[in-house]
Each structure stands twice: as structure tokens, then as C-alpha cells.
Amino acid sequence: MGGSPLRFLKAARLLRVHRNPGTQSSSTRGRADRRVSHLLLHRARRPHPLRTRVALAQCASALLPVGPRRRGESNVEQGSEWCGVPSGLTPNRRPSRTVLRRCREPGAALPGLGETRGICLSPLFYKMWGFLKRPVVVTADINLSLVALTGMGLLSRLWRLTYPRAVVFDEVYYGQYISFYMKRIFFLDDSGPPFGHMVLALGGYLGGFDGNFLWNRIGAEYSSNVPVWSLRLLPALAGALSVPMAYQIVLELHFSHCAAMGAALLMLIENALITQSRLMLLESVLIFFNLLAVLSYLKFFNCQKHSPFSLSWWFWLTLTGVACSCAVGIKYMGVFTYVLVLGVAAVHAWHLIGDQTLSNVCVFCHLLARAVALLVIPVVLYLLFFYVHLILLFRSGPHDQIMSSAFQASLEGGLARITQGQPLEVAFGSQVTLRNVFGKPVPCWLHSHQDTYPMIYENGRGSSHQQQVTCYPFKDVNNWWIVKDPRRHQLVVSSPPRPVRHGDMVQLVHGLTTRSLNTHDVAAPLSPHSQEVSCYIDYNISMPAQNLWRLEIVNRGSDTDVWKTILSEVRFVHVNTSAVLKLSGAHLPDWGYRQLEIVGEKLSRGYHGSTVWNVEEHRYGASQEQREREWELHSPAQVDVSRNLSFMARFSELQWRMLALRSDDSEHKYSSSPLEWVTLDTNIAYWLHPRTSAQIHLLGNIVIWVSGSLALAIYSLLSLWYLLRRRRNVHDLPQDAWLRWVLAGVLCAGGWAVNYLPFFLMEKTLFLYHYLPALTFQILLLPVVLQHISDHLCRSQLQRTVFSALVVAWYSSACHVSNTLRPLTYGDKSLSPHELKALRWKDSWDILIRKH
Amino acid sequence: MLCASCRLLAARACDHAARPAQSPGPRAPLQWRELHFPGYPELPSCDSLAGRLVRQSVPPGRRATRRRGKMPPATGGGLAESKLRPRRGRCGPQAARAACRDVAAEAVARSPKRPARGSRRFEAAGWWALLALVTLLSFATRFHRLDEPPHICWDETHFGKMGSYYINHTFFFDVHPPLGKMLIGLAGYLSGYDGTFLFQKPGDKYEHHSYIGMRGFCAFLGSWLVPFAYLTVLDLSKSLSAALLTAALLTFDTGCLTLSQYILLDPILMFFIMAAMLSMVKYNSCADRPFSAPWWFWLSLTGVSLAGALGVKFVGLFIILQVGLNTIADLWYLFGDLSLSLVTVGKHLTARVLCLIVLPLALYTATFAVHFMVLSKSGPGDGFFSSAFQARLSGNNLHNASIPEHLAYGSVITVKNLRMAIGYLHSHRHLYPEGIGARQQQVTTYLHKDYNNLWIIKKHNTNSDPLDPSFPVEFVRHGDIIRLEHKECPVKKIWRWEQKETSRNLHSHYHEAPLTRKHYQVTGYGINGTGDSNDFWRIEVVNRKFGNRIKVLRSRIRFIHLVTGCVLGSSGKVLPKWGWEQLEVTCTPYLKETLNSIWNVEDHINPKLPNISLDVLQPSFPEMLLESHMVMIRGNSGLKPKDNEFTSKPWHWPINYQGLRFSGVNDTDFRVYLLGNPVVWWLNLLSITLYLLSGSIIAVAMQRGARLPAEVAELSQVLLRGGGQVLLGWTLHYFPFFLMGRVLYFHHYFPAMLFSSMLTGILWDTLLRLCAWGLASWPLARGIHVAGILSLLLGTAYSFYLFHPLAYGMVGPLAQDPQSPMAGLRWLDSWDF
């Protein structure tokens, strides 16, 4: 627990002594010892030389929620003093731990513990007495270096945040979604779950953005109604807070204060991270939650050693879960860090299972707590993000078409306006439009029109020359079909309506031409292995009508289910040939107006969306006469039933579509391959000033990138070497140093690996900024490796001094590089072409030079 | 077979009854072990030789040999412990220690009553008889009705055809490595097939062509799967009943049966996979006598099988991965054994590198060498390969050709994209359709050789005929600005519509390309070579200085459009019908150097220049090897499923969701349907779940330090180690498919299915034994195991009886028809037989 500025949390942790005793009975003794020793450790550590001690009595009394708990604390403090360790004398951690161990034995025999339990159960006034006996004092340690780091982080990220007041790079993309949120219009984005967009939108909400801005082009000036500062604030804050968090993480890994400072300072001056945090982009928020997840897990893990099931233990455990799900909620990339944390937690849990000093019940409780916090909470939170997303976005919008009819009907406006009040059950005589469920290549409706298939196709094959049946991606009066009972002639709904059920035989009559849907053993125009589907025209050439279809409801509950508007997914199976009505996905040539081909699929295997249809618009036909019917078809439908989809149904559909949506592999000028990232062979030009040559680039600090990769290589080689030597029973490192080294490696090098290597398997367009999460982990590893070299590989004091000097020189060169690249990071200074050329250190960097 | 197992099990049961329950001391586990493995003498493993030797010196030492060689060591140590205990002193100090132990072990072993020599012989005979029975049954089922149907089934059309290519020495291209098809070709050749059958499409009758040889060869290899699995399980679990169960599952699985009966790569692949697995397991069990002859034998056999598996299909990589993991764990263990000197560990490492890396690689390259040697004639696969590669195929126009070396103005050339399987720059007299860029002549890339691939290289500013002898020869140099004029097809009358014969220039402009919207369109423009400034291209040689001449075949060149600054490239996307499904050519504004935008000059005709022989260009063997791999990988990743198509998903496979139609559709056809025996498959599925459950319970119990009784500890070792090994195999052969983007088929699951069947065998045997142990107080407890195994065996056999028409073929109404013999067996709607 490094130097959290608000130490009162610790005060709160002390309570656990009172709260827990119920959960364990047999092993209370041992547990209690550990607790006492923890208290000792805690007390012993308090007067850290670097920390300023500030009495915050008043403030704390306002902050701490429950009175009696504080009273408990004072009691415990009494108890701990019993142990006889002079509190407040040992200056740092390790000695305090030895104190702790020595103290264990006498602590076990402490009668005081029994008393504290007794106190817990004792009447209230007794506690009051304890409260009255001693004053309530809460002390807070403030780690000034941490404060300074935070301050510098904020300064570097928030300085001139509104500059440039123009759309920069992917802001054009995220901005649209912010506008949609502001206007509450539904959209679908396959790039990630909605939490990230919501975080950005929150900035807009705080700044009072009304969503009125046309995000159409990079470089466009923001109009005055766009609150640029508050829109960019949250990512910038996240970026700034990553700096002190890097410090904390290295400290929690039990490396020195210097190493921790080093990590934070590297984060501070990394140009790519600065650029990425200062704009309306999500990477910095993702990095923030990644680091938070790692940090809180480490805090939790360190709590685990001395005070399981304490309040802070619970807090950090829960926070781990929350941070993980937030990371996943921002981008799917967050899953990688989540998996890493889960993996580390699983290994630790496995060791816990092996710990035979714990009782079975205790182990079970531990596992259960972890499962709840690391598995259940993230899932629930993830659902919550979608819940809020769907609650917020209730209006129909431009992406409606991708969703199913049922989903569209649940949005305000759009399809809902049409379908509201339609009859639910499709009956014989109903007029319907049929939408293909698959929706690829485009969502479309079953359609027919006057034109016939050409007698002979271009490749010489013949057709039936009957009326074309296609799938048409626009609403049209020719999309209306009438469900007819083959045994009767009426095209109207009888009274009472006779609903159509699963397995019923139907004919589908095209509304305007009154020809019925037909398929026969003629090859389809573009898919010769399937049957042609047509609207039957009787040419009297011994080609009889085969227009009977059997209705199969795919998502039915029982065999007597009724065909329902929007909700039912149905297949039409041809009675004569058992072919299934299918959208082939091919575009017909000019004679078919480039509409999509419909075929009868003979070999249908299982479920496929392209053979499944649902009724979208529906009304009961009432007109006997064709002319009346045409008029009726042209007029909008009106009856009344309304439907709403459950959250889970909407969630699963939305999630599925997001994962299944494959945007065309768009090549981009600045796309790059993962191999180029490690050596920083590529950059991205984010913005160019409309007149001068001031420009913003995503360009890393090459010294940090290269040394990060070097550190990684050194770490892997050293680890391999140590591992092999340990296997031969040569222990180069003391056990605790080895464990520290391994844990740091697993989290930092592992974090790099999980955030980097999967990109080699991905087929989507990749950019340099995808590497930033991996880079942060590399930066964390860097000081770890440096400290290790200085502590364990430098033999003499002289070597150590030389090494430190080298590190300082190296760091100043990194600072120098960072400063040199600063104009490209902030874009605040217009450089001359000559200066720009001088900055182009690699040929592959694309720095924009204006030709005058 | 069943009788034998009954007898053995019963014998064991009696023996056990005689034993005092839960007797402490070393004697009990020993005896128990022996009871476990009745009739498991020295034969199948490397112990055979050593075992005999030992027996001579210590006459009735059967128990002792077993104790030292075979036993799964008791709790904890596992393989590790057995390796620690060298068996026959080979290396100095260890020998002494081992000898001491041997004596001790024998002393222990001798104390219980010795089995009579005769009974041991009897057991050995029984063991052999069982193996023979299993093998025989496997062969019988695979060869039964092998000749039916006498027409091409499913992928026989590909692999049979490729077999014929080998017989005819015709070069072809396939996405799989050549070994499998070479073996098929060899089998066909030896069985008298002359390679004349066309293998055009499924359903074609073979008539007088001899196809039985090829099918028989595949069935022969496929039949070995069962005995291999049997032996593997026997070695892993030391239990006959587990091995029998596995063998029965595989013998009676209709899927394995069907897949083994046709000319396909899968039986060959699975043969090598299982051979590798078996030899790996065998060599693991010789680990206590390193560097002995059997050890070397099994180790190198593993290497050979790996080469075979990889040589048939790239799926072989998974078994390589498994063997690799096993080897690494093995070496890691040896490395940690402080009693071994580093030199010894080094020897171990070298042996493995030799046998598992060098040997397979050598064999694998050898198959390619044979492949290149055999296929010496030009054939349908030429266009996929680079120009230099084609030069070695007789019949190809580059073979023994001699062409001018340096490019000059007026040369007629073909330009080939350097990216594999893109083809030649091509243009034809069809225009881009309305609405797609400018309505000018199409420019595409085309994989096959064609007159329309010819272009004339001209100076950008003059239109004079450079071939005019009065002009001196002027070479094209790096950085020159040129014009590429399309040479007209000499056969002019084939086009139906009247159009004046004109030659167009290669042209680009600011219109978006037909498919890749961010690129510019490339067209043919101009009349008789007179166009505009958009026809000018700068020709650049990659990584060269300005002013250099451009060499045929060798120079990697780029064409940069002068006006827009974009680079001529091919996106590799297939154009729709209007573009004759050739590949799109674009001009990319992104100046990244990718192979898509690099070209080389292949044919070169210029009468004014002296020709040089192309033989010098012939690629070396490593280059050819590399190139064919690149082409294969690209071909594999190019097999993408289309939208609106029914494709098989990996999650369908273990649940046996859908089969594959091998032959026949209608009720009148002879139908063969590749579908796993649902009883077997669903049992496998259940077993995997049960295994994970029981395995994790045991693992947690052990981690919690629970003291398991000796028998349970031993059984759980079998479950965790043997089962774990097999489960790893299943995982490695199944889950990678989820990551693959290519088209997947049901039959891809079969290697994984073999592993899951082995898991089933081990799991049920162990569970039943545990059950019997748990109920030891109950008088009939022993019977549970026997009854359980028997009912599983009989159940599988009965389900095979029900489903065998799937594999052996059925005629008559489809299964949904109540008249059909298969009616009632269509348990899932998605099965269509």
C-alpha cells in the first residue's frame, strides 16, 4: 500500500478484526495472529521519512461513514500495543516485517484478541466508553512525489487542451457517436462495446453539447457550440492519472521508489501517450483501466498476504473486477489484460488451494470471493453498459437497417411508426412484407415486379420467362404479398381471422400483380445449382404451377405455434421439390435492375439466416377487388398492438451484430503491420494546420520504444538463464527477489505480450495506436529491469555508480528526444520545412512538408 | 475378443478376492498392479529385448521387470520417477544404484506366489490374439464393400486426379504438401492404374479404370488407426479394457470407416498422426533406458511419422506441436535431474534435435524433391508459380527458352505480379460496365497464359515504331517514363461485335477502382496507342540506382503513374461476372512497398536483341521449396467462405451436427453419408466433460494434500497423465480451427476425434475401476467394471449395426420417409441422409 494520499482507508481496514470472527471458527487463532501482525506492520510503517504527516481529524470525521467502526479502531490500537513492539520506530518495510514475524508467537497467545472479539459483541455503551477514552485521530500520509507526478501528468495532458480547435483524426469518427448520444439516436459500431463511447459522451454531456455538429472531415473547425475542452477532458484525465498509477504499480511490485519514479517519468514524457490522451480518443482511457486493473490486483494481492477479507481486500478485489470490465467495455482489446489478470489470479488461487494451513471452508470462501469479483461482476457490469446504452438510445437512426425488424420496432420512430398497431398474428388473407433475416449483403425484402426473366441468359442457358422474384433493399409497394389459403379463393381475412400455424400449406400471392410465388426445376439465373423462383405466368407449355409452400416457423415454441408478425422467423419449404426459399446474395444483371437474386435451395443444411424470413409490415386484407386492394396496399397500415423486446433479446442481438459486422477491409494510408510497431517504423499524421505547417503526429519517443524492447529482450534472456540455473539448483537470486522478478515479469512482460501478439492473428486494419497499451506495459518493465541490473548484476559499488550515471544519461536523452518531438506532439509550433526534414529520423516516417 | 477380456478380468477379480483387503506394505500395491495388467508381457514396447535379458539372469522376474519398467510409478513421480530409475545400468554410477534397487525390487517381487511359466505364455498368447483380433476386425470393416460405389465420391475427384497427375508427370498446384497425393499416385501406379481417367466430377463412373488399388491403399492405412489407438491406450493406461474400448469405438465409428474407404488424404494423414502418437508414447515408456536400441527406434520413428503427417497436410503441425511440447517437458525434466551430468543432458538434447527436427525436415524436403522431380511436365499449375520456376517445366514456353536479357523500347513483354497466384497483367476488349469508373477497356490480372497478356513497351513521347531497323536499340532504364501499349490479339474474329481494331494504352485516372474504393481505376485507353498524359508511367526497379537497365525475369519493377503518383498493383480481389472473374488491377495511392505492386517481366520478344539462355535462371532447390510453400499458404488463406453459403462451423463437429454427402442425393441414388456414429460421438462428448470434472476434482484434492489410497492414487495418475496427454492431443487438433479463416469441413475434426475416443477409453475404464474400488465392500463390486465395459462395447457394436448403412451405402427412400430402412435414425433434423 504505497503512499496513497488518503490513508484513512487503512483506518477503515482495521475494523475487520471485529467484522470477521463469525466466518471462521477453527483457524481463528492463526488468522488472528496474522491480523495482529498486520496491525503491527501497519503501525510500524507509518512514519515514513518521505511522507508528511498531516492530521486530518476534522476532515476524516466528515469522511468516515460509520462512527462505531472508528471506535473499533481505537480498541485495536490498544490491543496492538499490547504486543510490545515499539510502534512508529522502524523506518521501512522489510525490518518491519521481521518485527512482525518475531511478534507472531507471543501474539498467538495474546489474551487481548479474545477481548477484542468480546468487545465486538459487547454492548454499545462499552464501545462508547472506548470512544470517549481516546480522541479520534486520523492521520493521512501524503506522498509528495506522487502528488508532483500527478500534477505534472495533468499539466502535460491538459495544457492547451482545446488546441487545435478542429477535428483531429479519429475524432471525426468518435464525434459522430457522441452526437448520436446527445440526440439519443440509435447507432451500431463494431469497433467496441458502448462504454467507451459513453465515456466520451459523458464529456459532451458535462459540457452541455447539443450534438449539432457535422463530423464529416478531419481538420474541420469546431463550431462554437462544441465544448471541445470538456469533450477532451476525460481522456486527458485518464492519460494524466496513468502516470501516478505507473508509480504505484512498480511500488506495489516491491521495487524501489526510484524505479517507481522512473516508470512514472517515462510515462510522463512518452510523446505517443501524450498525443493520444489529449484528443477525443479511447486508447488513453483503455490504458487507464488496464493499469487500474493491474494496480488494484496487486494491492489486493498484497492485502491477501496479511489481511484477507478485510475491507481494503474487498475493495481492491472488487475494483479489479470493475476495472477489467471497464477496460473490456471500452475496447475489445481490454479482454487481453482481463485474461492476464484472470490468469495471474488463477495461479495465485491455485497456490491458495495448496496452502494446507487454511481450512477447506476458508479456501472455498476465498475462491468464491474471487469468482464473484472477477467473473460475475465484470459480466454484470458489461451487461449494464449495454443496458444504459440501450436506455439512452431510443430513437431510430441510420443504422436501423442492419438490425432485425423486431429490434427496429422497439426504437422510437422509424419502423416502429409503421408497425405500431399491426395485428400480431398472421392470418390467411393477411398482407405482409417479408424481410430476409440474414441481411447480407444488404437487408432486403421479398419483391416482385412486372418484368419477366429473359428468355435466354447471356451464357446461353434458358429460363422459364416468368415474372421475376427478387429481393429489394428499399421499401416499395411491390414488396407486399398476400398469404392465401390454397383451398379457398378469397384474398381477404375471414372473420374471425384464421391464423396461420407451423406446418400449414400457404400460397404467397404478389399484391400488385396477383401472381403467386412459384419454383420449379429450372436453374436459377446466377446460381445454376439452385432452382429458379418466379411468380407464375401460365404460358400453357406444360409447365404447371407449383406454388404450394409449407410454412416452417424456426423459432417456435411448439408445433401448433402461430405465425407472428416481426417475432416469428419462418422458412418456406416448397411442397413439390422441398426446396427452400433463399436469398443467394448475388446481384442480378441489368435486366433484374441489380436487385438480389432469390432461389430455391434444394440442399438446405440446417439453419442459415439467408433461408429465414420474417414479416415486417402486416395488415389484414379487406378489399375484395384488385383495384381497391392496390389502393389499400399504397396506404399505410393502421391497427393496434405494440410490442417490446426484452433487454436480453436486444442485448444479444446487438452484441451479435457488432461481432458479426465485417467492415470492408479498408486499406488506410497510415495503417501498419504489428512488426513495424516495435521499432517505431511508422507514424500517423493526425492533423495539419490549415495554413501553417504546425501538425500533430502520433509519434513515439523512439528512445523509450527502443529501450523498452531492449529491456524486454534482456528480461527474457535473464529469466531464461535464471530458470535454467535454478533447474540445476543454482540460485542466483534470493527467493524473495526471484519472486518479485517473476511477478513483475508476468505482469509487465506478460501484459506486453497479451496486448501485442494477438494482433498478428487479426485480419482487420491495424494502426500504430493499437500498440500503445502494450507499450505502457513495456514502460513498466523498463525500470524493473534497470533496478535488477543495478541490484544484482553490478558487483561493486563503482559499477553501480557508473550504471546509475548511465541511466541518468539515458533518461536525459529520452527527455531530449521528447522535447525535440514536442512540436509534433502538441502541434503548437509551426516548423520550417528544414526543421521538419531534420525531424524525419526514419525514412518511413511520414511528416508533412508543405510545398510553397 | 470379449471372451478374452472376460477371462482376464475374471481372473483378476478372483485374484483380488484372495488378497486381504487393504493390506499395508509394499506388497499390496505390487500385487494390485499385477492384477491390473494381466496378460501384458514384454512384447509391445522396447522392454521386449531388455525384458528377456533380465529374465535370463533372474529367472522368474516378470514382476520385477514390470516393477522397473512398466509401472506407472506411484503418486507424484510419474514418468519422472521411472526415468530416475535407470533400468539396465548403462552409465556407471547409476547402474550400481539401479542394480541395488533391482535386487530389492526382485526380493519384494519374489515373495508373492509366482505364476506358472505356462500361464504366462498363455497370457502372452492371449495378448497377441487380442491385438490380432482388433487388427483383423478393423481391416474387415474397412475393406468390406470397398469397391462400392463404383463412381467418384466427393473429393476423390481432386485427389484421384492429383494421383493421375503424378502418374502422368504433369505439374499441378494444390494447397496441401505433396506426400499424400504422391502415395496415392504410387498406389495407383503399382495397382495398374494408368492415369488416364479424368476424375472430372463426383458421380462419374470408373468403368474399366482400376481404382481399387488407390482405395485399397487408403483403406489399408485407415485400418491401422484402430490397432495404433489400441496400443497407445494400452501403453498409457496399462489396461486392456481401456484399450479394447477405444478400439471398439474407432472400429464401430461410421465416420472413421467412411473416411478410410475412399481416395482421400485423411486416412493417410490420420495414419501418420496416430503413428507419431504411438511411437511417442512408446518412446516415453522407454525413457528409463535412454540410448538403448528401442529408444532410438521409437524416437526416430516418431520423427519419421511427423514428417509424414506434415507432408500430407499442414494439419500435421498440430501433432508436431504435441510432440514438441512433450519433448520440451521431457528435456526440462532431464535438465532438472541433478544426477545427470550436463554432457548427458546435452546428448539427450542432440538426440532429440536429430530425430525430431533434422530427420523430419530432411524427409519432408525429400518429398518435395521427389515431387519436383516427378512432375516435370507443364500442366495446370504453372501460372501459380513464378517465371523462374516455370522455366524448369517441359512444355512451358519458358522451358529451354532463350530471350533477350535487357528490356528495350519496342519489346513485346508479359508482366507478372510478384505476389503468388495473382498472375499476368491482362486486358481484353471488354469495357468496365456502366457505373463502375470510366467506361473504358478493362485491365485485370489473369492466372493463365494468354495472348491478351502481351504488352509493348514504348517511349512516352513518340509513337514511332521502335522496331524499325533504322533506329538503334535503346534500352529501358530505371526511372524512364514509358507507355505500355496493349498488343492486339492475333485471333481477331472471335469477338462478336464490330469494333475497330485498336491498341490501348495502360491508363489510370482519378476514378475509384471497381472493388477497392480507395484506389484508382486502371483502364485501357487511347486509339492505336495515342492517348493522353494519363498513360505515362515511370518504370522503377526496386532497390536500384537510376540509369540501370532492366533485366528480364530478375528485376523487380514498379510502375508509378506520372500524373497521380500512384503505383500499379493488383488487389488480389476477384472481379464479378463482368470482369470474367479475373483479378482486379488498381493504382494504389499508398506508396508502401508490398508484393502486390511489384512486377517482373516474363516473356520478352525483341528481334533486334541477342537472346540468352534462361537456364541460368533456374531456381535452386531451396528457392523452389520456399516458393511452393508461399503459394500453398496463400492458396490456403484464399479459400474463404462466401456470404450466404452454408458452411460448417467448428462447434458443429463434436456434436455431430451435420454430415457430409459423399455420394448421391435422391432416393434412387446409392448414397454414402459421412457422419460419425452418434452413439460414439456423444459418448466422447460426455467423456470430455466427465474427464474435465473428475480430473479437476482429483487435481484439487491432490493440491489440497488429500491422502489418496494407493489404488486411487495410481488410477488418478493414469487419468491425469495418460488422459492429459490425449486431451492435449484433442485440444491441439480441435481448437486451432476456431482461429482459421478458411473454409472448414466436417472431416477436419476426425484427427481430434481419434484423440477423444482414446480419452473415452481411458476415462471409462478408470472411472469404472474407481467405482468398483469405492464399492469394494459390496460383494459384486468387481462385476461393475466388467459389466460396465461390456455394456459399452456391446452398445457401440449395436449402434454400428444400426448406422452401418451410412458408411456402406444405402439405396431407397430418404430417412424422413417412414418406408426407409433408416427411418427413425434421423435423430437430428440437420442430418440429411
TrEMBL record, chain A:
It is found in: Endoplasmic reticulum membrane. It is an enzyme of class 2 (transferase). It comes from the Eukaryota. Residues 423-486, 497-554, 558-618 form the MIR domain. One of its GO terms (molecular function) is dolichyl-phosphate-mannose-protein mannosyltransferase activity. Its EC number is 2.4.1.109. Its main location: endoplasmic reticulum. GO terms for cellular component: acrosomal vesicle; dolichyl-phosphate-mannose-protein mannosyltransferase complex; sarcoplasmic reticulum. The chain crosses the membrane at residues 195-215, 227-247, 253-274, 281-301, 313-330, 335-353, 373-394, 698-718, 738-759, 766-786. GO terms for biological process: extracellular matrix organization. Pathway: Protein modification; protein glycosylation. It is a multi-pass membrane protein. Keywords: Endoplasmic reticulum, Glycosyltransferase, Membrane, Repeat, Transferase, Transmembrane, Transmembrane helix. This is Dolichyl-phosphate-mannose--protein mannosyltransferase. It comes from Pongo abelii.
